[in-house]
């Protein structure tokens, strides 16, 4: 079994099961340069605040997964992590945040690029603000 899929299957993160079920075949990109968990925590806390403005299903799910990532980053502030990006035939991707030295999965974020969807699909994903 692919080690990334195995990592996801053994995870209890909110979006892990969906990532496994949605990708039979995928490409994976792994960031070359590690980033500090503390730096990422600051960035993703800002994203949680921004996502709080939206009420769509996608935004609520992404906010919950981002909250989960922040919680995990708080427990590993002194460590570094890498991004693993799963891309397949679907219009979204999963961004995994993995500790560099231990390969522990800290976050699994389902993301969608505006470049990969129609305007109608984008409005469905983000159209509603509270």
Quick summary:
By secondary structure, the chain is of the alpha+beta class. The protein contains five helices and five strands; from the N terminus they run ααββααβββα.
Please write out the topology.
Blueprint: H1 3-9, H2 16-22, E1 27-30, E2 35-36, H3 37-51, H4 57-74, E3 80-87, E4 92-99, E5 105-112, H5 119-126
Antiparallel strand pairs: 1-3, 2-3, 3-4, 4-5
Helix pairs in contact: 3-4
Describe this structure in words.
This protein is an alpha+beta fold and 130 residues long. The protein has one domain (3-126). 42% of the residues lie in helices and 23% in strands. The chain has five helices and five strands. The protein starts with a helix and ends with a helix.
Class by alpha and beta content: alpha+beta
- Termini, distance in Å? 42 Å
Average predicted local confidence, pLDDT: 92
Helix segment tally: 5
Largest sheet: 5 strands, antiparallel
Number of strands: 5
Helix percent reads 40-55%
Note the overall shape: globular
The helix-strand sequence is: HHEEHHEEEH
């Amino acid at each position: 079994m692919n080690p990334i899929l195995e990592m996801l299957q053994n995870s209890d993160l909110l979006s892990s099961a969906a990532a496994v079920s949605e990708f039979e075949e995928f490409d994976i990109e792994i960031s070359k340069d590690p980033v500090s968990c503390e730096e990422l925590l600051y960035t993703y806390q800002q994203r949680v605040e921004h996502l709080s403005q939206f009420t769509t299903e996608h935004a609520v799910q992404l906010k919950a997964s981002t909250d989960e990532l922040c919680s995990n980053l708080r427990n590993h502030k002194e460590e570094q992590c890498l991004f693993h990006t799963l891309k397949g035939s679907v219009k979204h991707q999963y961004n995994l945040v993995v500790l560099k030295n231990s390969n522990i999965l800290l976050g699994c974020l389902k993301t969608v690029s505006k470049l990969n969807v129609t305007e109608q699909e984008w409005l469905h994903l983000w159209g509603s603000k509270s």
